[in-house]
Amino acid sequence: MLDKLKTLLSKQADTPSGEPDPERVRMATCVLLMEVAKADEEFSSSERERIVATLRERFTLSQSEADELIEVSATRRGEHHDIWHFTRPINEACSVPEKLEIIEEVWRVIYADGTLEAHEDYLVHKLAKLLNLNHPQLIEAKMNAKEGL
């Protein structure tokens, strides 16, 4: 997996076949999850556990692969000033239902520490807009996430 992530870090475009690179989607999803976890200036252990569980389930990763993806994604996020760089691969590769699943996971990370802070709420609305999701879809994802807690 480390070699795949290193390759991903050097890639700026889609794969030669024109298909979106699944590694970019993994990293982008991880970045979004970490971004909301850190939005309130605190990255709690419950938020980290939720992110690891999401990555392991969604992308069939081992614990060490999920930990590595978090580490590499944090580095990659530091190289870009805007979050659009990470929503673009998701928009290119994912259907609306898949994007709704990602937003549900975003909500689950937000609620992992038991509170919804204003910065987190602002960010999830911004992410929904960048993922071309409307407000009713965002609220539906929020309700679905809260039901699963």
Which helices and strands, and how do they pair?
Blueprint: H1 2-10, H2 22-37, H3 45-59, H4 63-78, H5 84-93, H6 96-111, H7 118-130, H8 135-147
Brief summary of the model shown:
By secondary structure, the chain is an all-alpha fold. The chain has helices at 2-10, 22-37, 45-59, 63-78, 84-93, 96-111, 118-130, 135-147. The chain has one domain (23-147): TerB-like (Orthogonal Bundle), CATH 1.10.3680.
- The helix-strand sequence is HHHHHHHH
Q: Uncertain runs with pLDDT below 50, 5 residues or more?
A: 11-17
Q: What's the total number of strands?
A: 0
Number of domains: 1
Describe the structure in your own words:
The chain has a single domain, classed as TerB-like, CATH 1.10.3680.10. The protein contains 8 helices and no strands. 72% of the residues lie in helices and 0% in strands. With 149 residues, it is mostly helical. The longest helix has 16 residues, at 22-37. The chain has helices spanning 2-10, 22-37, 45-59, 63-78, 84-93, 96-111, 118-130, 135-147.
